[in-house]
Protein 1
Amino acid sequence: MGVTGNPTSINQGTRTKGGIGESTLRPDGILKVTGEFAYSSDMWHEDMLWGHTLRSTVAHAEIVSIDTSEALATSGVYAVLTYDDLPSTVKNYGLEIQDTPVLAHGKVRHHGEPVALVAADHPETARRAAAKIRIDYRELPVITDEASATAPDAILVHEGRDDHHAGHVPHPNIVHRQPIVRGDADAAAARADVVVSGEYVFGMQDQAFLGPESGLAVPAEDGGVDLYVATQWLHSDLRQIAPVLGLPEDKVRMTLSGVGGAFGGREDLSMQIHACLLALRTGKPVKIVYNRFESFFGHVHRHPAKLWYEHGATRDGKLTHMKCRIVLDGGAYASASPAVVGNASSLSVGPYVIDDVDIEAVALYTNNPPCGAMRGFGAVQACFAYEAQMDRLAAELGMDPVEFRQLNAMEQGTLLPTGQVVDSPAPVAELLRRVKARPLPPERQWEVAGEQADVRALPGGLSNTTHGEGVVRGIGYAVGLKNVGFSEGFDDYSTARVRMEVIAGEPVATVHTAMAEVGQGGVTVHAQIARTELGVAQVTIHPADTRVGSAGSTSASRQTYVTGGAVKHSCEAVREKVLEMGRRKFGTYHPAWATAELLLEGGKVVTDGGEVLADLVDVLEDEAVDIELEWRHRPTEAFDLRTGQGNGHVQYSFAAHRAVVEVDTELGLVKVIELACAQDVGKALNPLSVVGQIQGGTIQGMGIAVMEEIVVDPRTAKVRNPSFTDYLLPTILDTPTIPVDVLELADEHAPYGLRGVGEAPTLSSTPAVLAAIRNATGLELNRTPVRPEHLTGT
Amino acid sequence: MDFLRPASWEEALAAKAEHPTAVPIAGGTDVMVEINFDHRRPEYLLDLNRIGELSEWEVGQENVRLGASVPYSRIMEHLRTELPGLALASHTVASPQIRNRGGVGGNLGTASPAGDAHPALLAAGAEVEAESVRGTRMIPIDAFYTGVKRNALAPDELIRAVHIKKADGPQQFSKVGTRNAMVIAVCAFGLALHPGTRTVRTGIGSAAPTPVRAREAEEFLSAALEEGGFWDSRAIITPSVAKQFAALAAGACNPIDDVRGTASYRRHAVGIMARRTLGWTWESYRGNGRSTEGAA
């Protein structure tokens, strides 16, 4: 049992120790495992107050009145704030559409919406005072799905929309709609020998990061505020926070504090503005820490989706056409919904060649919990559906599901439905071949010596529900298509400041970016890049803050590509400057200074033949080279709003999975035995981190296949399971063996040829597990997560 | 909230008599969750952790006297032979950390229908030793659970120990959750064969307002085993008997639909577990035990 698997085909190296391509250890790894790492919730400040957020107990209601008098009169309470106390004319925020009130105004649109804030000298005092705030709600009917959102008499979740999507959506309760039309799907359908259509339902997954939302706001003497917070993108937060506080951006100084996971759930603001408001009002530092219960209301979730797909194929197994309609539930506020729609539609075809398509994706405004970014971002829901379709088509055609996929697999040069050409390696067929070629775990793998059953290897695990009775094995395959980086014309740049100087007789590089380290391993990668480019052993990673330019978001599998690219770019500029200094000082001593390609290695300036020209200590002496530069990947284009045409994405990434499951067909319980993964990463800068990302993504994908789901009551739009008691995450006993096969086929457009890693395995893991359960049970299973009721028909 | 810390059992009883609303706390694995979630704010907490004897057990001729605070991990390690059903149930409780803190006294005090110990106690046969300044009384486990999260304790009483019948035959425990460890029961089933009295006893968890026995199933099976001469012959049980036993066990459920599962699934799953645990215990009785829990 347990996690195994090492990369098997890593082939690119570096000549500097601790440089790219090496499995260097995380500086924060041991601290995190031993409990010594300081997370944002561990911060403390003398004379600090505690903030508390009062949230709506209903999903949709008019606020008739709010009475804060009793709360304000409570001993130990320093401030109680409502909408009326907001200091600026700007009272809303949002990633793309500023539709989210800092505090509810006149109306609440979802269960758990912030209505009032309290600051007190003790968290318990703040909580009790908040409980004394009296809010009179007049409840409104709840909008919970497409039918209720677009009904003729539907209440508008947001009146008077004037955002940039308002003009082209078919109904004001639709946030964004993106069609993609290419070829003639109807005409192509006439060529199909088999047509398969299906409706699929994807449940609401939570990021469930272990470090709840938390931060500390410290008022400053200049009237500004210093905010220490766990987030995914400091500058995006800053852009949203400052206007609401009525402060210029330079008066809001942000520093990243210890982040306990993110997975997309920290792209939106949570307690940032609230803590700043309370700190500025009271003149004291204010800390806010959500507990687990509140955390389920404190961040957006993965969009639940309904997906309708039709595919056709010829008798010889070639896909003819695809039609699909994807309805994502965005909940009460827009968050990242428009971009999720763009992804869902543009990636809905999957990693297959289909010339004739008719695609539509929409996101709804409803009174359900707001949904936004989560690992996989719109591509996850689509992959679950199109991979189910592939299996059904293969079955209709009597073909092997892997061979059928390989026959239709995209490759470098494939034209996507958006008209974009895939212009770097796309080894889809090869990834499938690799997972299929692996030996299978032995049959009846739960049997130990003497025919005894080890229940830990069986469905139900320690709960002792079977010793082999009713257990059937199933095997399933899936492969996915994910974009890397921000898309649709977004200016997706990053900034890095690199400084090189001699400290204590040794050349040292300092890398300063605003990149949020949320566990992805950027801190390791930045040091590796600096060692490789600058030939130094010592690299200091400066804490991430807003004193340096934006690094963009730690999202979309983009940070190693984009901020890694920025670090590389700035290092190259520093290197040029250092070589220039060397030429000035030593150029006359050796002809190679003028002619040869020079490198920095082992603390020295060397020729590419390895001849040492100078020691960096002597080149730099007491001067420091300090350069901050922005770096951009190739620009992308917006998708046409009618046809969906456009070079919308920077890069694509691919992973394939084979799932092996044991299903207790009588009790409907599932044990995933193995989830083998093959993924192309272009270049593994840190192979250990790469495998960790792939295994983590694989498990997160398995979670939504068999257990993870936020359950929302369709009558009240209230969340029924906001706790780890009933929102179940996989434990180590649920975690299968995950052998990983890493390919490194360089993308010539990317730094070092690398390809973003973090999300692709989250896509294919879920449908592979579902396919394996279908294989074991023969059931259709068009919904994820699968519950025992679905497998037993009870 | 006042925190009472009696140094002895007598002091604890006195404190409970003086403050009948005081909530006893030992491992804290249940009470602290309730407090942290703000589901309850008792006026007094009565800390029993200074009373060492509550973490001790004695193995007697007929019974094990299990102190109210003996942690589940101890039951798993030390009482597997005497209390096999309870040891199996203990292994399904939460995580190792929780099993090191929590004990049966807390399960009984909370009396949640989802408490993992209850089906094993019902199946084995047990009495709860309840005590107050007024004296000691033994409450039969069958009379202990009085409603959803309600039990037969008087306001001034504390649970000192549980007297559980030592196994005189094979016992099994099985629990359905939607995760392979650390999960609250969707439903659970305990079964104990009592060859000494030629009876069987059962316990069902999370499938009725209280933990319950499947009495009709027990009576049916006891009679079938007796009439068929199975206790002596140790022959394989007729599939129709196992099937009927399972159907009667499912019929003893009175479950609800909730976020963890549907009522009809619970009924279905209890039937499956009844059939399987009967198969395992009977095979074991026949001398062919073949299951293992694996390491803790």
Protein 2
Amino acid sequence: MKTVKKVDARRKLEGKAKFLDDYSYDGMIYGQFFCSNSHHGIIKKIIFPQEYDLSQFIIVSAKDIPGKNIVPEPECDQPFIAEKEVFHFGQIILGVAHPCKETLKDFIKNIKIEYKELPALADTKETLKDEMNSFGRKIIIDYSKNVKPKREWIHTHSVYYTPHQEQAYLEPQGMIAIHNQEQKTMFVKGTMQCPFFVKDAVEAIMGDKIKEAIIETSEGIGGAFGGKEDFPNIIAGIASLLSYKSKKPVKIVLDRSDDMKITTKRHPSRVEIDTYTDSKTHKIKKINIDYRLDAGAYQTLSPVVLSRGVLHSGGGYACEDVYIKGQLYKSNTPSNGAFRGFGAPQAFFAIESHIDKIAASLNLDPYEFRRMNIFRIGDEFPSTQKITENHLFDCFEKVIEKSDYHRKIKEFAKFNKSNDDKKGIGIAIAYHGGGYTGNGEKVLNSEVKIVIEKNGVVKVFVSNADMGQGAHTTLAQLVNETLSYPFEKTIVQIPNTSKTPNSGPTVASRTIYIVGNLLRKLALKIKKELQFENLEEFISNNQEYFPKEFRMHFVQDPSVIFNEETYQGIAYKDYSWVACVAEIYYHSVTYTIEPKRIWAVFDIGNVVNVKIAEGQAEGGIMQGVGYGLTEFFYKKGYGRMQGLTDYALPTSLDIPEINVEFIHTNSDFPKGLGEIPMHTPAPAIRNAFYNATGIFIDEIPLVPERIIKYELLKKK
Amino acid sequence: MEFIKPNTLKELLEIISTITGEKYYFAGGTDINIQIKKDIIRNGKIIFINHIKELNGIKEDENYILIGSTTTFRQIIESKLLNDKLPFFQKSLNNFASPLIQSQATIGGNIANGSPTADVVPLLLVLDGKLELISNSMNRTINLKDFFTGYKKFILKPDEIIKSIFIPQNAENGFDTFYEKIGSRKALSIAKIAVAGLKKVVNNEINEIKIAVGSLNEYPRRLDLIEDYLLNKDLKDIDFKKIRIILKEEITPITDLRSDKDYRFEVCLNLIKKFLLKPDSG
């Protein structure tokens, strides 16, 4: 529980840290994409503008790919470059490079294309409504006991919708590729979360033209939030192709509007929930969930998002009869991808909204109803995994107490009786399984490396990126605190696939939980092996012994068994828990919800760095507030927001008072934190809005244009 | 594209009197830069005016407060003179855009960009603002109200520029003031609806009334018909059903990427109601 300053803070504040666009290489030229503006069509003809000398441009199409034109993904169904047919707008048709950025931009703008247009699905709701549009594997968690609903059970049914969400990282996506003809290597530097994914992608597209792809992240990565999990594969692949063809280093950096247009977003969802609740005991007796995600035109990593979404969709409630069905839906829009929460925020918005709806139909306070049904030791997830701790319940009770929930419920009811403006308070609870789902971590087989140099520098080698979340500070802390060694001399290296072992991608709230705990184990092993009292003294007294390298692989706890077919077993070894309360003020004149205060109590196990953890929690909460209130991305008939002017991320003036607390911090080890703060703000705000106005809205964001429709209906 | 930087106001006026084609004035650049980037501006001449002294600064004479057209929002927000004489005007612009944009963007630019959503225009309209227009051959002063003729269209002649904005010294005196800008967030937002109002109520009777709206028509404008209806009316006698009917004639809200027609209409009506029923701060 120490707070040390982030290692990168000073360099970033002084503007010294190098982000991708700060790097330049001799002879470097610039690359960009020519993308489809058709939702679905067969390419008939591409016409280049005549006023340019074509020989000055390097142009690559699918035909130029020496290797495979398929991006390596959990489901390999997406080409790097479209061949004859485009399946969504923004699909890459050509890679183009030129020494001058401006000329390149103008040239691409003037390329004309003719299609034979084909039928297309662009609207999310239309896509998700019709089962005809489903594709890929259907996931079923069958925990049903064929219980027949009794007469005194209350049936509650609703359909919940959540929208796209844009990651809006500060630094847009970008890559530099440098082909080395003699050594037959491709060096790629970029802003990314997963260097080894990019390595697989570059090696796939280049085929036998290279022996090895060497991937290195830039020094600074300006945010990612999942957006730089898989899309960098495509940029790196095409940059490599352009470098191979031009024999020059090629830099591709996306403009903000292109980044918003063509890269992956959070999956829109439609979640339909049916429940039966005993009106006497107030226990939920039966839950049926139909969880659907709009994957976009290709599946890519969506099956894994679906899997996590389904596993989190039952919420933190015990029920003896649960049936969950999950499936992907196909639309003619760019593939959706990873985003903080990975299917879980959609799931929790639905179930947490639904819980308030049941409580309302029982005329119960949402707190009382949750208290009756919340997970306790001995309960089971629908996957049959046992609940072994009451930490969710502890978070829940704590946040109710801290927010003064009970007093506010009464006070607000009184206020609301005599005012047009309304006050409201709402609850949401959630959890997040750390690391890859099921047997994923076993398959990943992460490896970490520590090298102790003669000069006493302890170098930490992992493939996980610090994209601003502070990973290279917290990982260093886990090593230096275990070795009782100075923090300044413990340095996490910039990930480079030829130097760092594969400790897996920087995703799934796994960096501290899996990689950090593994590093700590390795540090303990070093301590045992070297048997030192003081490592600094030991190094200076035993110089002949150094430099010395230590390595360790992740070993999965053998009790973790998960059946990928039946979705039974232990889906995640450790869960983080959260309970959240949101207080809002509703402006009746403008139909606007103003979040006033948010309390969140987390159990993330041992907290490595309090300041960094608080920053993650507060940032995630704001991303959740934006998701619930303002981040409107797509409007039927008008298309997608094109930039950060229209796509309304909250500003610093929009941030409510946020109160974060971590409990059960005396635990043996840290668990995942990255994603869980995202799960609860949107449903808590939606429930607070119900508390304020008596209006249930089952769709986010709760923009005033949506609210007014319900208000006008109420008046009629 | 050609870039021109005249040294003096005289030189500027001479240069623009000779340019026949497309031309743009670059003051803060917060709109022009984006229009260039988005290819909305592809050709023509870009003329820098932000360094010309005569166009910048806040002064007063006997009857008016004068704001030079390249005066930035930061200058306006920090002006002591405005704090003394036009505090409502000044305070209303506090949350304009963001601190970065406030430092660059200019009041003349906000007007001459011609956007229906221009934040400063509804305020200037209720304060009876005037524009001093200047060219090589003549000077004239017009009411801001008469400046706009359509979407991004004004009465400005090809060789004319806005030199300064005039606001009567006593424009706010004795008035009950109102300004609300509704955007998708609290700062850095483009108005979906903006309503500015001034009223004088004596013994419950409306003696003077000025209401202007933004983002609801092709350009920001005063609501003349609503004002006519309200003038000399007792507050108790205001019929909001009647106002709804008049408003339908006077504003033409649209549905676009940012908002919906119905929302814009209802909120405009609600804001007018809020303004009228607001207790007189007197």
Protein 3
Amino acid sequence: MTPMLAQVGLHHYLILAAMLFVCGLATMMLKRNAIGILMGVELILNAANVNLVAFNRFRFAVDAGGTGGLRLDGQVFAIFVIILAAAEAAVALAIFLSFYNNFTTIDVERGTQLKG
Amino acid sequence: MMIQLLAQTTPQPPDAGASAVLFYLFAILAGASALGVVLSRNIVRTAVFLLFTLTAVAGLYFLLDAEFLAAVQLVVYAGGTLVLIIFGVMLTSKSPGIRYEPKIGEVAVAIGVSVVSAVALVMAIVRQFPANSASVERHPTIADLGQTLLGDYLIPFELISVLLLVVMIGAAYLAKARRREGRP
């Protein structure tokens, strides 16, 4: 294996995260099933998480002024993003269930008269 | 020649080759599964592809020295959120004969926007972040993560627990089964 390929750096992770983001974007645009759109959102959040952790690993995880601790702000942000994604999925699925109870479908094209 | 090549690769840790192989394995798995999420027509298969993507991203977290985050990804995301999504699929999959096929114009717009964003992002990354090696003094531990989470981020940590309570109550209220004639 050549040394350039053997040395995995920051830009490898960034390009992978960009690919995940683009796949999530395409999923959100292509799916008409509301749960499929939710899966696209999850892909985009994962791409953001990969970016946060990779930047934290390669650019930021240095000793913070001799206090003996490492700065792990990127990982903390990623944990918050995971928690918020779980909360968002719960609320979105509750809304979709309510929508399905009223319209017997979760096609987002039929959601134009959603009210009350 | 050989000695020069060895001298170039000396500063790397001895397991750089193995971790590179693992990175490409997880990256290819994540990218292929994400493509499967985009291209799959069956919503259950889409969910399974999303599971593979989440698992591969957890492996990448292991490679990035974020072991706790990888465990959280596996437990909360792959074990919790994805099961929630699959329950949603099961509860809403009785739509009579409706095919969720996108229109041709939507497909064209989606492909155009995706290709343009992919090219722009990759060009920006390659130009902005040239290849560099990682230089960390020591590997971060879970103790460091705990110090950061309960030190600087104590207030957000407490706030997000309140948010989880609000979300639980709100989701239970929204998903409450209502009879149709009972609607106002």
Protein 4
Amino acid sequence: MCGLGGIFNRDGKRIPGNDIITMARMMRDRYDGRGGGFAGYGIYPKYAEYYALHLFFRDEEAKEATEEFLKDRVAIIKDEEVPMRNVKEIPKENIVWRYFVEVPHKFKSKKEYLAQEEDYIIDTVFTINDEIDGAFVASSGKNMGVFKATGMPDDVGRMYKIEKYKAYCWITHGRFPTNTPGWWGGAHPFNLLDWSVVHNGEISSYGTNRRYLEAHGYKCRLLTDTEVVAYLFDLLVRKQGLSIRSAAIALTPPFWKHIDKMPEPKRSIYTALRMTYAPAMLNGPFAIIVANRDTMVGLNDRIKLRPLIAAKSGDFVYIASEEAAIREVQPELEKLWAPRAGNPVIARLYDDVREEVIH
Amino acid sequence: MVRNFPPDFIVRVDKEACINCLRCVRECPFGVHEYDKEKKKWKRHHEKCVACLRCAYMCPTQAISIEKHPMEYSPHPVWTNKVRKDIKTQAETGSVILTAMGNELPYLNYFDRLVLDACQVTNPSIDPLREPMELRTYIGRKPEKVDLEEDNGVDLKTKIAPNLKLETPIMFAHMSYGSISIEAQLSMARAAKEVGTYMGTGEGGMHVDLYPYADHIITQVASGRFAVHEEYLKRGAAIEIKIGQGAKPGIGGHLPGTKVTAEISQTRMIPEGSDAISPAPHHDIYSIEDLSRLIYALKEATRYKKPVFVKIAAVHNVAPIAVGIIRAGADAVVLDGFRGGTGAAPQVHRDHHGIPIEVAIASVDQRLREEGIRHWGSIIASGGIRSSADVAKAIALGADAVYIGTAALVALGCTVCKKCYTGKCPWGIATQVPELRKRLNPDEGARRAANLLKAWSHELKEILGALGLNSIESLRGNRDRLRGVGLSDVDLEVLGVKPAGR
């Protein structure tokens, strides 16, 4: 069991981290203290054009090795320790540092290099995680960051001084791990570039999804099933150009008996997506929130084996495992509902929120 | 010289129960039972008995039982009775030993060393009687990605290559008209149509009686090219080029002229009574580029409307060969493991060539992924699939679907007596003798063959439910849900499976 929550302001208004900590605290009995975390979008407006790398180092040696590696690969615009306060509940296991970096000029000389630039950052992240002992990249997007550790999420939030950051999109997660050991890197959110994912449940199709992603060059080394969700969104949306809605059809497709009854051309589209992305289909019990720079998505498995509640109040959108978490931060709601199994709830910047009916 | 060759079986008859009806004499195609009417004496030719059990089950008073013959040579672990008998047979005949069905040597069966996972607490198991559970499988080439134009409405830009739609990932393997009777083929064709899957014609062409089921039939193009013509190719749902067979990798086939009846002659398009020889290689395929030409010739002939499969025996170098086949344009590669059955094969080939299907699936699936072309073609596995558990394990290792041959025949009444090559199948399956063929009623056969598919499909759904999955594609290549028990590190590495306990 885990708990997850998300707050999204459709007008891009940035709010401090207090509300998301409150949301996390309201679901305390869903966690066992072995992992909690937050992701905030819009937190680094001053460095918005640079990739913000949040890193965990086990010791100074790992930090030096990483900096040695980074030095030849990217231009470091600024780096600093992530401000933290001591909290008695969480022993400090890691040095947490952030680097604002840009890709060297040679990769920016042409327009088509932009996509390559992102792949270059992904490659940088995978190389650090894979090859530098004791170093781990917690997040790598622009104008965003992931803050996570082994502990209750509200304690983690306090430790990282989350209340001092302002974001238009916050997501949080508390863990009750049953498949992998609790370690800082294994806490949620999982991130790659802009994509952050929090997940409650189990991806029972993990083996199939992982091998599909590996065939596309992704490296799944985090000892957890959640990372595949982030990579699948990266592959389907960023690399292959599907909309989030179409990606959701690929990841949690309707049952064949429903597809067979659809009118054309809908049936052909759904059939094509399902046939092509069969190895990407997510199976098992899950509720997830996926965010990127302009979107927050809530998604359940195809038979809704985990709770997920969505709500709307003015320009704010809320998604959480429990209604109480939403009501505590916003008692006045225009709408609160339980999205249907497999239907993505998509909130977009400068746009509305809606549950896309694909099931 | 004394022929010191103990029979394999002994026919025991309860004389009190026997009513001398002579039913056993009529039932046994091998001439085991002989009755001298004048002397009113029975003679049982034990040495001819193959333990098909036909007489025992047809005896109206259940007077007959077949037992293993108690007389054996002095025990020896190396010079087993089988070894000594084979040598004596060959000393007498000077010939290759002919046999049928699958590999008989006790090689390790990997399926029996692999166990499936199940849900406990953290992920709920799913009850297929209450929740939807999907087995639908598409066989054929898939695109790398789907291109949609999503500006005004949604427009599908990607064209999907022709695929076979299977409602269950189990098909009936290619067994030719000639090797088996039209009644046996009809049974499987009807079952395939009913269940929403496919059967293979084998190299024997498509008998006119099968035409109503042609949209559920995969036609075969093998080295003898029997029956191959435009209409035949266009009539079926897909085309399979047969390069090799698990039961006899590297060798061809031979249907004796005595079996080439008028109907078989018509279907195969060869003269009545002539031997039907399938050469070991295709004489227009001596290389991968030749294969590619045939694949595209067949696609051209069918206007790119039919998927083209290529079947090979699983041999040592199966992974690069299969990759080559997929790169050559095949929409699926069929891997036939060394336990695969046959109607006739030299024993030396059947028992000593090829590799197990489990490792072939694992290495081909892995290699296709490493080359980034797993979606170019499907993997169909065959050769020794005995149960729904084998199907599930084959799919978890990386297969898209399986073919079943022997299991289908057993469903039709076969008792695996291994005498298919004699053409005297006592159960009316592997025979063209009219009196024997009558023993298989295609209505009953269709019901039983369909039942087998339904039963296995039901079990597959239960297996998926226990794994917490509600669709077969989430099991495909999902080796995380398998564990090895009692396998070596190297075996586990090849299979890509962890040992139990990890």
